[in-house]
Amino acid sequence: MIIRIGIGSCGIAAGALPVWEAVQEEIADRGMSVELEQTGCIGMCHHEPLLDVIYEDGRSYTFGHVTPEMAREIVQAENPASLEKYLVSSPEKRNSFLDKQLRVALRNCGIIDPESIEDYIKEGGYQALEKIIKENDPEGLIEEIKISGLRGRGGAGFPTWFKWNATRQEKNPDKYVVCNADEGDPGAFMDRSVLEGDPHSLLEGMAIAGYAIGAHTGIIYARAEYPLAVKRAEIAIQQARQKNYLGKNIMGSDFSFDIVIKQGAGAFVCGEETALIASLEGERGMPRLKPPFPSQRGYWQKPTNINNVETFANVPWIIKEGGKAFAAMGTEDSKGTKVFALAGKIKYGGLVEVPMGISLREIIFDVGGGIKDDKQFKAVQLGGPSGGCIPASLMDTPVDYKSINETGAIMGSGGMIVMDETTCMVDLARYFLNFTQKESCGKCVQCRIGTKRMLEILERICRGEGQEGDIELLETLGHQIIDGSLCGLGQSAPNPVLTTIRYFREEYEAHIYDRKCPAHQCKELIKYRIDPDLCKSCGLCAKKCPVDCISGEKKQPYIIDDSKCIKCGSCLEACPTKWSAVVVE
Amino acid sequence: MNCICKAETQMEKQFAQADVDLHLIDELLAQYSKETGNLITVLQKAQDIYGYLPLSVLQYIADEMGVKRTQVYGVATFYTQFRLTAMGKYIILLCEGTACHVNGSERIATALEEELKVNMGETTEDGLFTLSDAACLGCCSLAPVMMINGQAYGPLTPDKACSIIREIYAHEKLLEEGGVTA
């Protein structure tokens, strides 16, 4: 029997380490012949910490929300599969979260031990690298990627083969392969999951790219906030070197390729290629004009090919299974699969990989189980601060580059935040603009000052001080910023505002003209009050109030002191629904 | 030599002045200083050693690497990872990711600011807590979430967040008293 525990960042945050220790102790105490393994993230974040029990015949049972006590009970059980109350997935009853998924980039995540190269090899790892070295046909290899139709998974969706080919054509013999692992979109963690759960697939993808373009050095530019991902990638690099999948004369051929990790230091703009290169060179991460493109003059002025983690992770699969197999998935212009980080007001949040062309509705309702607490679904935000909001009425939009762009949002790197009736769209636009305004590098005037002005207007609207003409001003400014900015950050910064105005204009108008926030989120526009006729004087609200601004006595209705109230809503949540004495207006 | 714009004097005011042992980073500089492209790596490792980047360290790095001081300062202020002032014993990172935002992280922020009597980015007077925000901690299913010295807490309510702080505070007080009696 094998016991496997998901030890990724999300699992650790949910408490996987004490579970690991408990299982380890229990096995040692009882002298059991059980193999204990760690693995990365399977994507079911809503059930973390997760524990799998795998029987000799291959049957696998997954337990969710595992505590150390539960883990001991599972280990002690004669037949763990019978502990149905803890089960979240079993061969008899597969979790619906996994049913519509198709895993290519995440094929090994949550299955193999990310710190074991043997595990990766057992799943067919490094066969693709071996194959292309044997075939010795870099151009044919690029052709295979072209057939697959793979497009960059970092956001813009540029054809991967085209970049590879352009870099290959350059005469300079010193070339670089760079992996953009600076996943800065708040609410997205696809790349982290690959690095933590299956780092070798990234290394293999990079080595294949190196072979295709004629590079000998690869650099992973990793986000500083991902210590575990960096650690696992480092271990993987060491192991690959030992087995000669990296280093000099790989597998006895004349191809040499090695990979180093450089850590970013926290700047969203470094997701932009030229800013990333500046950062690699130890400078402030500020973008520059293109052309020359990085494929012509990149890292230290040498031809450089940059792809993101998910793109590279797809490559070994494409080489092994063939470009046609990849192209068979998805739609006409968007081939293959896409990974999304599903979060927000969703019942089952986590990491999902679905074939392109699937509708948003299927992802949110069939995979994600619908809206938390069965509230009303309002919109979904795609692409983070560069993306936009798609309203509930467009839920049948298929997920492909073209259809998503038509809605005003972008595919982005894969952040998918679901919102319900309690989300204020003006506040959301303000939130994203606050982010991009802070992250603007300051080079272009429109981006630096324009986003600041837009933010000020949005803040004013949220405070209830909006004026007639504000919406139009936001639109004008938005278009000017798009036209006047050098890089993708500025060109896309107004998207969250423009899309929310496009689909939720009436919400802006309610803020400006009626001084009301329909979603009851904007603090200055709401007031909490206790209805004296409904109050049962239980005192629950006063107990939960973090600033002690609710007072009252037995048999007397409680009162909120408005001067001290921070409008956190704790009282509203505390008041039992059968009484609903706390009202928001 | 005379700096007419007084920029350097102004800079000095911005930084917490501290007497730190500059030679702690000598080994680090010997390893990385040959290439200016390593500046960010050097700053990261120096911050690991000192906990933050005092002005004297920035100047030392600039001199040793042969890079202009303005460039080192420019890089140190560009990236959010670098801290120019000392931090509290407990660093509270409140996640500001989108999932946390729609699940009410702002309410948590207000409650924490109220509880600690500091604004976001500041350290309490007793040097115990630094309240800081993070773009995204990546544990979206625990939203809203905060991390205190590497330990994640979530899903939070304003009330829960405050009681976690109070617990740590009580624990610290006990330690302090224990120290006195011992």
From TrEMBL, chain A:
Keyword 4Fe-4S on entry: yes
An MF annotation (GO) of this entry: 4 iron, 4 sulfur cluster binding
InterPro entries according to UniProt: 4Fe4S_Fe-S-bd, 4Fe4S_Fe_S_CS, Nuo51_FMN-bd, Nuo51_FMN-bd_sf, Nuop51_4Fe4S-bd, Nuop51_4Fe4S-bd_sf, Thioredoxin-like_sf
Keywords: 4Fe-4S, Iron, Iron-sulfur, Metal-binding, Ubiquinone
Coiled coil (UniProt feature): none
Domain 4Fe-4S ferredoxin-type: 526-555, 556-585
Domain of life assignment: Bacteria
UniProt xrefs under PANTHER family: NADH-QUINONE OXIDOREDUCTASE SUBUNIT F
UniProt family annotation: Belongs to the complex I 51 kDa subunit family.
Name by which UniProt lists this protein: NADH:ubiquinone oxidoreductase, 51kDa subunit
Organism, as annotated: Syntrophomonas zehnderi OL-4
Automatic annotation (TrEMBL), chain B:
SUPFAM superfamilies: Thioredoxin-like
Entry keyword set: 2Fe-2S, Iron, Iron-sulfur, Metal-binding
Binding site for [2Fe-2S] cluster: 95, 100, 136, 140
Cofactor(s), names only, from the UniProt record: [2Fe-2S] cluster
Keyword presence, Iron: yes
Gene3D superfamilies: Glutaredoxin, NADH-quinone oxidoreductase subunit E
Pfam families for this protein: 2Fe-2S_thioredx
Source species, domain of life: Bacteria
CDD domains registered for this protein in UniProt: TRX_Fd_NuoE
UniProt cofactor note: Binds 1 [2Fe-2S] cluster.
One GO MF term attached to the UniProt entry: 2 iron, 2 sulfur cluster binding
InterPro entries, A to Z: NADP_DH_HndA-like (IPR028431), NuoE-like (IPR002023), NuoE_dom (IPR042128), NuoE_N (IPR041921), Thioredoxin-like_sf (IPR036249)
Keyword flag Heme: no
Similarity comment text for this entry: Belongs to the complex I 24 kDa subunit family.
Protein name per Swiss-Prot or TrEMBL: NADH-quinone oxidoreductase subunit E-like
The organism of origin for this protein: Syntrophomonas zehnderi OL-4
